[in-house]
Amino acid sequence: MGTPVNIIVGSHVWIEDPEEAWLDGEVTEIKGRDATITTSNGKTIVADISSIYPRDTEAPPAGVDDMTKLAYLHEPGVLHNLACRFALNEIYTYTGNILIAVNPFRRLPHLYDVHMMEQYKGAAFGELSPHLFAVADTCYRAMINEQGSQSILVSGESGAGKTETTKMLMRYLAFMGGRSAGSEGRTVEQQVLESNPVLEAFGNAKTVKNNNSSRFGKFVEIQFDKHGKISGAAVRTYLLERSRVCQVSDPERNYHCFYMLCSAPPEDVKKYKLGDPRTFHYLNQTNCYEVANVDDAREYLETRNAMDIVGISQDEQDAIFSIVAAILHIGNIDFVKGKEADSSKLKDDKSLYHLRTAADLLMCDEKALEDSLCKRVIVTPDGNITKPLDPDLAVLSRDALAKTVYSKLFDWIVDKINSSIGQDPNAASLIGVLDIYGFESFKINSFEQLCINLTNEKLQQHFNQHVFKMEQEEYTREEINWSYVEFVDNQDVLDLIEKKPGGIIALLDEACMFPKSTHETFAQKMYQTYKAHKRFSKPKLARTAFTINHYAGDVTYQADHFLDKNKDYVVAEHQALLDASKCPFVANLFPPLPEETSKQSKFPSIGTRFKQQLQALMETLNTTEPHYIRCVKPNTVLKPGIFENFNVLNQLRCGGVLEAIRISCAGYPTKRTFDEFLDRFGMLAPDVLDGSDEKSACVSILDRMGLKGYQIGKTKVFLRAGQMAELDARRAEILANAVRRIQRQIRTYLARKEFITLRRATIHLQKLWRAQLARKIYEHMRKEAASIRIQKNVRAHRARTFYTNLQASAKAIQTGMRAMAARNEYRYRRRTKAATVIQTRWRRYHSLSAYKQHKIATLALQCLWRARTARKELRKLKMAARETGALKEAKDKLEKRVEELTWRLEFEKHLRLDLEEAKGQEIAKLQGSLNEMQGQLDEAHAAIIHEKEAAKLAIEQAPPVIKEVPVVDNTKLELLKNQNDELENELSELKKKMEEFENKCSELEKESKARAIEAEESHLKTMKLQDTIERLELNLSNLESENQVLRQQALDASTNEDLSEELKILKSKIAELESENELLRKQPAIVEQVANPERILPQVKSFENGHQTEEEPQMTKESGPPISLLTTQRPLTDRQQENHDVLIKCLTEDKRFDETRPVAACVVYKSLLQWRSFEAEKTTIFDRIIHTIRSSIESQDNITDLAYWLSTTSTLLYLLQNTLKASNTTKISSQRNRTSPATLFGRMALGFRSSSVGMGMSSGYSGMVGKGNDQSKVEAKYPALLFKQHLTAYVEKIYGLIRDSVKKEIGPFLNLCIQAPRSIRARSIRGSSKNIHLSIVAKQQSSNIHWQSIVNKLDQTLGIMTENHVPPVFTRKIFSQVFSFINVQLFNSLLLRRECCSFSNGEYVKAGLQELEQWCLKASDQFAGSSWDELRHIRQAVGFLVSHQKAQKSSDEITNELCPMLSIPQIYRIGTMFLDDKYGTQGLSSDVIGRMRALMAEDSISMPNNTFLLDVDSSIPFSMEEIFGSLSAIHLSNMDPPPLLRQRSDFHFLLQETQTETA
Question: How much is the pTM?
Answer without folding.
Answer: 0.62
